[in-house]
Specification:
410 residues, alpha/beta, TIM Barrel, globular
Length: 410
C-alpha cells in the first residue's frame, strides 16, 4: 500500500504532550482510536496501525459482557486480534457488576487482551434505555460497583473508562464519576465533551476536559470530541492540559489521520498527509479487501465456501458490501458526481469497486475543506432511560443481569 503524498501543513512543531502510560503500556504518541460500532473491527484497526507505523492504541468495537461470558459467536469473532496488535485493547459494555466481573476475569484468565476499557459514553437508545453507556454514571453506587468488580477481576491488566459529561445539562456526572474512578483504581479516563442528549451534535466542550484533568490529577485524562485533524489534536492538548487524545469520527474515511497524528506529535508537521484521489482509491480497495479476508476467515481460521459461478469467495462480496458505508467518507470533498457516488455505494465485488474508482479523475489533489465533521452529527435528543432512572442518583434497584445487552458491536 502506498503512503499518501505530503505537503507542509499548519500544526506547530512544538509538541505539547509526552508518552501516555496505560498500566505497563507506553502509548507514544498519546493517540487512541475510539471504539465505533461496525467500524473499528480488526480490518480497520489494521489499516490505522499501518498508517501509524504501529504507534498509538487501537481499541476494539464495544463488546457486551453478557455476550462475552456466554461466548456468543459474533462476539468471539469481534475479540479476535491480529498477531501484530500490541497491546490488544478491548472495550466492554455492561450494567451488572457480577456479569462485568465475570467478563473481565475471563479476559484476564484466558489472555484475551492486554487492556480493558469500559464504556460509559454510548448515547444510543438501545443502550441507555437499559441504564448503560452514558446513562450509567448517574447511578454513582452502580458505577462504583462495576469499576470495583472490573479492577479486582482484571489482575495485572489495566482498566480504563470512557464517558461523557452527563445525561444532559441538568444531570452532569463527569466530575463525580472521575473521582469514583480514581478511588476504585481505574488507570485512565477518556472524556467526550458532550452530554448524552447532544449525541454528536453541536460543539464538544473542551473546557470540561480541562476541568476533569484538574479534578483528577492522579491519573491520565484523555480528550475526545471534534478532532478532525492533527492540528485539532495538538490544540486540544494545549488548551485542556489533557494527557492524550481519543479520535473517533475524525478518522472515518481518513485512516491516514493516524500518520498525521504521529507526525504532529513527533514535531514533523511537514509530513502531514494530503493524498490525491488516486491514493485514496488505493486505500479504499485495501480496506474492502481486508474486510473480505476477515469475514471469510470468520475472525479466526474458519474459511467461507466458494461462491458458485465466478469463483469469488463469499467473504469478498460481504466485505465489499460492508465497506459501502465508508464510501462517502472517503470521497468527501472530491469532485465525484452524485450518480457515481451512488454506484460506488452499491458495489458487491472488488473488481466492480476498482473499476468504478478507475473511472474517476484520480489525479485530483487533496481538496480544500475536506477535513471536518463526518459520520453522525445529530444532537439535542431526548435520552431514553429506564423508568424512574433520575429519581435517585444512588439507588440501583431494578438494575441487574436482565438489563445486559446480548449482542456486541454497539
Amino acid at each position: 500500500m502506498s503512503t499518501p503524498s505530503t505537503t507542509p501543513s499548519t500544526p506547530s512543531a512544538s509538541v505539547p504532550a509526552g508518552p501516555l502510560r496505560i498500566g505497563p503500556h507506553t502509548v507514544a504518541p498519546p493517540v487512541v482510536l475510539a471504539p465505533m460500532a461496525g467500524i473499528t473491527n480488526a480490518p480497520f484497526r489494521t489499516l490505522c496501525r499501518e498508517f501509524s507505523g504501529g504507534k498509538g492504541l487501537f481499541v476494539s468495537e464495544m463488546i457486551t459482557t453478557r455476550a462475552l461470558v456466554e461466548r456468543n459467536e459474533k462476539t468471539m469473532q469481534l475479540i479476535h486480534f491480529d498477531a501484530t496488535e500490541k497491546p490488544r485493547s478491548i472495550q466492554l459494555y455492561g450494567v451488572d457488576p457480577v456479569t462485568v466481573g465475570k467478563a473481565v476475569r475471563m479476559i484476564a484468565e484466558e489472555d484475551l487482551a492486554d487492556h480493558i476499557d469500559l464504556n460509559f459514553g454510548c448515547p444510543v437508545p438501545k443502550v441507555t434505555r437499559k441504564g448503560g453507556g452514558s446513562a450509567l454514571p448517574y447511578k454513582r453506587n452502580l458505577l462504583r460497583a462495576i469499576l470495583r468488580e472490573a479492577v479486582s477481576g482484571a489482575g495485572d491488566l489495566p482498566v480504563t473508562m470512557k464517558m461523557r459529561k452527563g445525561i444532559d445539562d441538568d444531570h452532569i456526572t463527569y466530575l463525580d464519576a472521575g473521582r469514583i474512578a480514581v478511588e476504585e483504581g481505574v488507570t485512565a479516563i477518556a472524556l467526550h465533551g458532550r452530554t448524552a442528549a447532544q449525541h454528536y451534535g453541536g460543539t464538544a466542550d473542551w473546557d470540561a476536559i480541562a476541568r476533569l484533568k484538574e479534578h483528577v490529577p492522579e491519573i491520565p485524562v484523555l480528550g475526545n470530541g471534534d478532532i478532525w485533524s492533527a492540528g485539532d489534536a495538538l490544540r486540544m492538548v494545549r488548551e485542556t492540559g489533557c494527557d492524550g487524545v481519543v479520535v473517533g469520527r475524525g478518522c472515518l474515511g481518513r485512516p491516514w489521520l493516524f500518520s498525521d497524528l504521529v507526525a504532529a506529535f513527533e514535531g514533523r508537521p511537514e509530513d502531514i498527509a494530503r493524498p490525491s484521489l488516486r491514493e485514496v482509491a488505493d486505500v479504499m480497495v485495501r480496506h474492502a479487501t481486508l474486510l473480505g479476508e476477515w469475514i471469510e476467515n470468520g475472525g479466526a481460521a474458519q474459511r467461507a465456501p466458494v461462491e458458485g459461478g465466478g469463483g469469488r469467495r463469499a467473504g469478498e462480496s460481504k466485505g465489499v458490501v460492508d465497506f459501502r458505508k465508508h464510501v462517502a467518507w472517503y470521497l468527501k470533498g472530491f469532485a465525484v458526481g452524485s450518480e457515481m457516488r451512488k454506484r460506488l455505494a452499491v458495489t458487491s465485488s472488488l473488481a466492480e469497486l476498482r473499476a468504478g474508482l478507475d473511472e474517476l479523475d484520480l489525479d485530483q489533489a487533496w481538496p480544500a475543506g475536506a477535513d471536518g465533521p463526518r459520520g453522525r452529527t445529530s444532537g439535542n435528543n431526548r435520552v431514553v432511560l429506564p423508568d424512574g432512572w433520575l429519581k435517585d442518583p444512588y439507588d440501583c434497584a431494578g438494575v441487574g443481569e436482565d438489563a445486559e445487552l446480548d449482542t456486541s458491536g454497539g
